[in-house]
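note to self: the first set is below, dont mix up w the second
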Amino acid sequence: MPRHCDLTGKKANNAFAISHSHRRTKRLQEANLQSKRVWWPQGKRYVKLRLSTKAIKTLEKKGLSAMAREAGLDLSKY
């Protein structure tokens, strides 16, 4: 299963880990992903999605159907 948000598409970012002596080594900054059951009113059931915490906050404001439409996601497959 790929490590990205189902609704926003957020994924890992390449970055440097910088030590005290300022030596730089490559590392990954992973997205803060959470598995979440979200109520889908049109389908009258819960949908299990892997969401970033930013997407969960936006979901409360916009709603599941609007965000899925923007992402081009078919919720009946989840």
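second set (the one i keep forgetting abt)
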Amino acid sequence: MAISISQNAANHVSDQLASRGHGLGIRVGVKTTGCSGMAYVLEFVDKVEVGDHVFEENGVKLVVDSKSLVYIDGTEMDFVKQGVNQGFEFKNPNAKGECGCGESFSV
């Protein structure tokens, strides 16, 4: 079980961690919400908790709790810029559907 991060996303996370001044990496998880059922949650990680899985790629640590990993196993996290918009994009092989706005997904 694993998730991955593109070089663009890793660069963005590294820049954010540097601006913040501390942190081990970024936590990637899911929560129940949105019109399709689940949404991705990102937050800085200062401490790895019991039951967390840690993946490192492109110089960035991704931390995922066991419950979330079931839904996002195999996901690639990217950071895209389109015109004036920018943000993280998730390529999740477990997602069976997404809402029209792309904010939530179903499995």
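remember for set 2: The first helix runs from residue 7 to 20.
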